[in-house]
Amino acid sequence: MKPIQLYTQKNALPNDLKVEVNDFIDFLLTKRKKELEKKKPKFRCVKGQIYISPDFDEPLDDFSV
């Protein structure tokens, strides 16, 4: 739908419905903003969930001669 069509349809509404449409648009924008904020990973968000064993850097037995 083109912006001019939205504008025309919105202007054809009575004032009380225009207010509802504006409120709904604000709701959708706020919802979208929250969804985008949730998708951003936060620094150190997995701290304590990853474990590396102390012998991680030791040579593997499979490669010994």
Describe this structure in words.
It is a single chain. The protein has 65 residues and is mostly helical. It has one domain (3-63). It contains two helices and no strands. The chain has helices at residues 3-12, 15-39. The longest helix is centred in the middle third of the chain and has 25 residues, at 15-39. The N and C termini lie far apart (70 Å).
Total domain modules: 1
Give the amount of beta strand, in percent: under 5%
Nearest-angstrom radius of gyration?
27 Å
| Poorly predicted residue ranges | none
The N- and C-terminal alpha carbons lie at a distance of: 70 Å
Strands, total number: 0
**Structural class category:** mainly alpha
Reported for the largest beta sheet, the result is: none
Kindly state the percentage of residues in helix.
40-55%
Overall mean pLDDT stands at 87
Give structural attributes.
mainly alpha, 2 helices
Detail the topology: elements first, then pairings.
Elements: H1 3-12, H2 15-39
Give a concise summary:
By secondary structure, the protein is mainly α. The protein has helices spanning 3-12, 15-39. The model has no long low-confidence stretch (mean pLDDT 87).
